[in-house]
Write a structure and sequence with these properties.
Blueprint lengths: L26 E5 L2 E5 L5 E2 L5 E4 L2 E4 L1 E6 L5 E9 L2 E8 L11 E8 L3 E8 L5 E10 L5 H5 L10 E3 L2 E5 L4 E7 L4 E3 L4 E8 L4 E11 L3 H4 L10 E4 L2 H16 L1 E4 L2 E7 L11 H10 L6 H13 L15 E2 L8 E2 H19 L3 H21 L14 E2 H20 L5 H18 L1 E2 L6 E2 L2 E2 L5 E2 L14 E2 L3 E2 L6 H12 L29 E2 H14 L2 H17 L7 E2 L21 H13 L3 E4 L4 E4 L10 E8 L2 E7 L5 E5 L5 E2 L2
Parallel strand pairs: 33-37
Antiparallel strand pairs: 1-2, 2-4, 3-6, 4-5, 6-11, 7-8, 8-9, 9-10, 10-17, 11-16, 12-13, 13-14, 14-17, 15-16, 18-34, 19-20, 21-22, 23-26, 24-25, 26-27, 28-29, 30-31, 32-33, 34-35, 35-36
Helix pairs in contact: 3-13, 4-5, 4-6, 4-13, 5-6, 5-7, 6-7, 6-8, 7-8, 8-9, 10-12, 11-12, 11-13
Length: 662
C-alpha cells in the first residue's frame, strides 16, 4: 500500500488521463512557474491549449495581430532559448507594385508574459498603417483546458494602457506601451496608427501579468546550477549541453513550504510541478553542475516523508505511473524512496557540505528502514505491494543498499556491513530468479509475477541494471549481474531490436505488444537511453555506449537540442528523422538532465570530495572527438576537464586541495 500522493499542482492534469491534446508542434517558452504555448505562426487564437500561463492559470488565450487590416503571413517560429521565442512574418501593404512584402514583423514572446512586436518598413516612401491586437482570455486552469472544459471568454475592461479580466479570485492585465490610440473593451481590441519612414521600425510591447499574487509565489527561485559549458570537435555537443542546462534551469520551481528550496518540475505543459522520482533523477544527473539542486530537492522530499510506525513509515509519497500494457502502474514513491539515499551518497562525493549531509542523513536512514520492512518473503521488492517484482525496482533497491552503506560508513553510522551483505544476497537471488537462459545467451525478465512466474519481455528498464552508482574512492558499486550476463545485456541493448538508431527502445521491437509510440512499450524514453549510455560506458562497453550516444545526439539535433521526454522508436533509415510523440512533455526535467549526464559521462569524472580526490576514466575512443567541459563543480569549486581525440583525460581546473586519483 503506498502513501497518499502529494497534492496535484495547479494546472497539472490528473494522472491516468487517457488522452491529451497534441503539443509536438507547439513553440513552448518556460520560466517556471510561467509558461507560454504558441502555435508556429505566433497567433494565439484561443483554440486548444495555446496561451500565456502562470502557476497553471491561463492569463491570456487570444493575442491576434493584424497589420493593415490583415493577419501577417507567417514565415518562421523558433525558440531563442528556454524562456523566449521569435515569430517572423511579413505584410504586403500594396503601396508598391509587385508581389514583394514591404513590412516585416517580428514578435519576440517571453515566458513571463512579455511580448515585443516590431514592425519594420521596407518601402521607398513613408507609410501610415493601422495595427490591431485582439486580446481575450478565459482565466481557465490548465487541467480544464487540456480536458476541453475551459469556460467562455470573459468580458474585458479598459485598464490604464490596456485591458483587464477578472473572475473575482483571479485578475489578469495586459498593458501596452506605447499606449494604444484606441482600446475597445467590448471586442478586446487595442489599436494604433503607426507612421513608418523608409527603413524605420516601431515596437509595441505587451505585458500580461496576474494581479493579486504574492511576490513570494510570483518570483523565480534562485538557480543553483553552475553556468557550465561544453566545447569540442563536434559543435553539436556544445549546443546540446547549453540547451540542456538552460531547459533544466527554466523548470526550477520553489517549494511553497520553503521558498528558498528549488526542485525541477517534471515537464511542460502537463507536469509543471513536483514529481518526486523525476525531480530526484534530474537532480542526480545534474550533480556535475553542483550539489545545490540535489540538496534542495532532497530537503523538499524529506519534508514529505511519511512518519509514524506503520508499513509506510519512511516512505516518500508519490503517485502511480503507467507501466504500459504488460504491467500494472508502478508507484513513483517507491522509486523516489530508493533513490533518496543513493542521491545523497553521490551528492556527498560531488561536494555537498558535510553539515547538509548530516541534516539529511536521518531521512536516508528511514528510507532504508522502509526498504527493509517492505521486502517480500521471496526477498524481492514488489511495486506496488502486492504486485510484480520489477527488474528495475530490484536495481534501485540494490543501488540504495550499496550507496546507502557507503554513506553510513562515511558518516560513521552503523549498519553499513549489514546492507552490503543484503545486497550480495540480492545479487545471488536476482541471478537465479530473474535471468532467463537461452541459446542466444539469455536475458533478464522484465518482472516476476507474485506467483514467481517470469515476464519474458526485454525492455529499456533493463538499462537500470547497468546503473550501479558511485562509491567513495572513485569506485562504482557492483551490479546485479555478473560480468558474463552484463556483457550479454550490453549486446542486447546495442542490437537493432533495442537500438532504434535514435536511442534505446522502451521495449524490443519483436516483443508482443510493441508500439513505437508506446511510452513503456516501444518509444524511446530519453532518461533510459542516458542511463544506458552512462552504464555501458562505466562497464567498459565502448561500442554499444558510443552507438546509443551518437543516436541520441542526432535525435537532439533534430529536435533543436530540446529533447522531449520520449519520442517514437521508428527504426532509423537514411534521410529519416525521429518522429515526435504528440503528447510528450518538452522540455522535461529528466530529458534535459540527460544531456548533461551523457556528455559528462564521456569524461568519466569520479569525485570523492570528502577524501579530496577526483579520478578520470574517459570513454575510450572519444566518440565525439575532443571535448572540453568547463564550469562544472567538484568539492564546491570550479572544475574543468578536457578529453583528447585519443580518449585521454586531463583536469584543467580544480579546487587547490583536490588531488587527481588513479
Amino acid at each position: 500500500m503506498s502513501h497518499p500522493a502529494p497534492p496535484r499542482p495547479p494546472g497539472v492534469p490528473a494522472a491516468g488521463r487517457s488522452e491529451l491534446p497534441p503539443v509536438h508542434d507547439a513553440v513552448i517558452c518556460v520560466a517556471a512557474p510561467c509558461l507560454v504555448i504558441s502555435p508556429e505562426n505566433g497567433q494565439l487564437t484561443g483554440r486548444g491549449i495555446e496561451g500565456i500561463y502562470r502557476s497553471g492559470r491561463r492569463l491570456l488565450s487570444r493575442c491576434v495581430l493584424r497589420v493593415g487590416g490583415r493577419e501577417p503571413v507567417a514565415l518562421q517560429g523558433r525558440s531563442l532559448g528556454a524562456d523566449r521565442a521569435s515569430f517572423t512574418a511579413t505584410v504586403r501593404t500594396g503601396s508598391e507594385p509587385g508581389p514583394d512584402p514591404d513590412i516585416g514583423v517580428e514578435r519576440v514572446r517571453h515566458a513571463d508574459g512579455t511580448e515585443r512586436i516590431t514592425l519594420r518598413s521596407y518601402t521607398a516612401r513613408p507609410v501610415r498603417i493601422p495595427v490591431e491586437v485582439l486580446l481575450a482570455t478565459d482565466l481557465a486552469d490548465l487541467a480544464a483546458v487540456a480536458a476541453g472544459r475551459a469556460g467562455p471568454e470573459l468580458p474585458a475592461a479598459v485598464h490604464a494602457a490596456g485591458l483587464r479580466w477578472s473572475t473575482g479570485e483571479t485578475q489578469a492585465v495586459t498593458a501596452a506601451a506605447p499606449a494604444p490610440d484606441d482600446a475597445l473593451a467590448s471586442t478586446g481590441l487595442l489599436r494604433w496608427q503607426l507612421e513608418l519612414g523608409p527603413g524605420e521600425s516601431r515596437t509595441i510591447e505587451l505585458r500580461t501579468t496576474q494581479e493579486g499574487v504574492p511576490r513570494a509565489r510570483a518570483g523565480r527561485v534562485a538557480n543553483p546550477l553552475s553556468d557550465a559549458r561544453a566545447e569540442g570537435d563536434d559543435p553539436r555537443a556544445e549546443a546540446w549541453f547549453r540547451t540542456s542546462v538552460e531547459d533544466l534551469g527554466a523548470l526550477l520551481l520553489r517549494d511553497p513550504e520553503a521558498p528558498g528550496d528549488a526542485f525541477a518540475a517534471a515537464g511542460v505543459p502537463w507536469r509543471l510541478g513536483l514529481a518526486p522520482a523525476e525531480s530526484l533523477w534530474a537532480a542526480r544527473m545534474a550533480l556535475p553542475l553542483g550539489s545545490g539542486l540535489a540538496a534542495a530537492t532532497l530537503r523538499v522530499l524529506a519534508r514529505a516523508q511519511a512518519g509514524g510506525s506503520g508499513p509506510d513509515a519512511g516512505k516518500i509519497p508519490g503517485p502511480l505511473r503507467g507501466a504500459g500494457p504488460q504491467l500494472p502502474p508502478g508507484c513513483t514513491g517507491t522509486e523516489a524512496t530508493l533513490a533518496f539515499p543513493a542521491v545523497l551518497a553521490e551528492a556527498r562525493l560531488w561536494g555537498m557540505p558535510e553539515e547538509e549531509v548530516g541534516r539529511l542523513l536521518p531521512t536516508a536512514e528511514r528510507c532504508l528502514g522502509w526498504l527493509r520492512g517492505a521486502l517480500g518473503k521471496d526477498g524481492f521488492l514488489a511495486d506496488p505491494d502486492p504486485g510484480p517484482r520489477r527488474c528495475e525496482t530490484q536495481a534501485h533497491a540494490h543501488r540504495a543498499a550499496l550507496l546507502g552503506a557507503d554513506l553510513l560508513a562515511g558518516c560513521g553510522r552503523p549498519g553499513a556491513e549489514e546492507w552490503r551483505e543484503w545486497a550480495a544476497e540480492l545479487r545471488e537471488r536476482f541471478r537465479l530468479r530473474f535471468w532467463i537462459d537461452g541459446p542466444d545467451g539469455g536475458r533478464p525478465a522484465a518482472a516476476l509475477h507474485p506467483d514467481g512466474r517470469q515476464l519474458p519481455r526485454l525492455t529499456g528498464a533493463a538499462a537500470h541494471l547497468l546503473d550501479t552508482g558511485l562509491l567513495g574512492g572513485g569506485r562504482f558499486a557492483p551490479g546485479l549481474l555478473d560480468r558474463t550476463r552484463t556483457e550479454q545485456l550490453a549486446r542486447l541493448l546495442g542490437a537493432p531490436g533495442m537500438d532504434s538508431g535514435w536511442g534505446l527502445r522502451s521495449m524490443a521491437v519483436r516483443e508482443p505488444g510493441h508500439n513505437p509510440f508506446g511510452h513503456r512499450s516501444g518509444a524511446v524514453r530519453v532518461h533510459e537511453s542516458a542511463v544506458a549510455v552512462a552504464g555501458l560506458a562505466q562497464a567498459g562497453f565502448e561500442s554499444e555506449a558510443a552507438g546509443l550516444l551518437r543516436g541520441l545526439l542526432d535525435a537532439a539535433e533534430s529536435f533543436g537540442y530540446r529533447l522531449p521526454e520520449m519520442f517514437a522508436a521508428v527504426q532509423r533509415t537514411l534521410g529519416s528523422a525521429p518522429l515526435p510523440h504528440p503528447a510528450a512533455c518538452r522540455p522535461a526535467a529528466v530529458a534535459a538532465a540527460a544531456g548533461i549526464h551523457v556528455l559528462t559521462a564521456l569524461a568519466g569524472i569520479r569525485p570523492d570530495a570528502p577524501a579530496a580526490t577526483v579520478a578520470l576514466a574517459p570513454l575510450p575512443g572519444a566518440p565525439l572527438g575532443a571535448l572540453r567541459l568547463s564550469g562544472l563543480r567538484v568539492a564546491g569549486a570550479p572544475f574543468a576537464v578536457r578529453v583528447s581525440r585519443l580518449g585521454l583525460g586531463m583536469v584543467e581546473e580544480a579546487a587547490d586541495a583536490l588531488q587527481l586519483g588513479g
